[in-house]
Design brief:
Helix 4 runs parallel beside helix 5 and helix 10 runs parallel beside helix 12. Helix content is 44%, strand content 17%. Bound molecules: cytidine-5'-monophosphate.
Length: 228
């Protein structure tokens, strides 16, 4: 079940297909996020599926329950393997998202996960900007409990929080992955692929450590070797 998901943060499909060329035959799991989805739309997801890629559609929906349910009804038609919402939308919104996916046969098979706290958020930001005075790990746990109560399959969190998520019986999708010799960029709560494995992540999401590497295929294989 453990797998490495490449975050395809590219501006358009031409750049993405150029990047994917040397991966021919490897068929990595891909994360399609808002940057490229807002440019290329659902057709990109259909094309990637037709080429045999598994897809985590990372659109992080967060709105009133009715709007999220309708959005998920449309996304369900794409039949992606995983999609997500922000747990900050609350239990009713997460339940509505699941209902939306369940409206289509293809959507019923889509795993729904919730973002607990972005891996770019630090304890300091949580307290000083968002006025959440609790410990970040406790916030992640509470949001994960909410996701579980809403019937979701798992959460997006930092690998550092994966043990709590495993205890709750949920799957964890963990971005903020860096090799020991990489820069952390804007991420705050980072882990190496090996540490993520040790902490019990189900999937790691790796962007710049692969996409900006001198040899992206070698970086991907290094992730697989360390994590899977
Ligand atoms: O380049 P990097 O490995 O930091 O990319 C991480 C990816 O994971 C980005 O696409 C980002 O949107 C996503 N992500 C994240 N933190 C979350 C949820 C998603 O960094 N909590």
């Amino acid at each position: 079940m453990r797998d490495v998901i490449i975050a395809c943060d590219f501006k358009n499909k031409e750049d993405l297909y150029e990047f994917l060329k040397p991966f021919d035959g490897l068929n990595p799991y891909l994360k399609v996020g808002m940057e490229i989805f807002y440019k290329e739309g659902p057709q990109l997801v259909k094309d990637l599926h037709a080429k045999g890629f598994k897809i985590f559609l990372d659109l992080k929906c967060h709105d009133i329950p009715n709007t999220v349910e309708s959005a998920m009804r449309n996304l369900g038609e794409l039949g992606v393997e995983i999609t997500n919402v922000h747990a900050a939308g609350g239990i009713k919104m997460m339940e509505a998202a699941r209902r939306g996916l369940d409206a289509t046969e293809s959507g019923k098979k889509t795993k729904l996960i919730a973002v607990t706290q972005l891996t770019s958020i630090s304890q300091e930001t949580l307290e000083n900007e968002l006025l959440i005075k609790e410990n970040l790990a406790d916030v992640v746990k509470q949001y994960a409990l909410n996701a579980k109560a809403a019937g979701l399959d798992g959460v997006v969190c930092s690998a550092l929080e994966a043990p709590i998520i495993k205890e709750l019986g949920l799957l964890s999708v963990t971005p903020g992955i860096r090799f020991a010799d990489n820069s952390v960029d804007d991420q705050k709560r980072v882990a190496t692929p090996a540490l993520a494995k040790e902490l019990g992540s189900t999937y790691i999401v790796v962007g710049r450590s692969i996409t900006k590497a001198e040899d992206p295929v070698a970086a991907y294989k290094r992730c697989v070797k360390e994590f899977c």
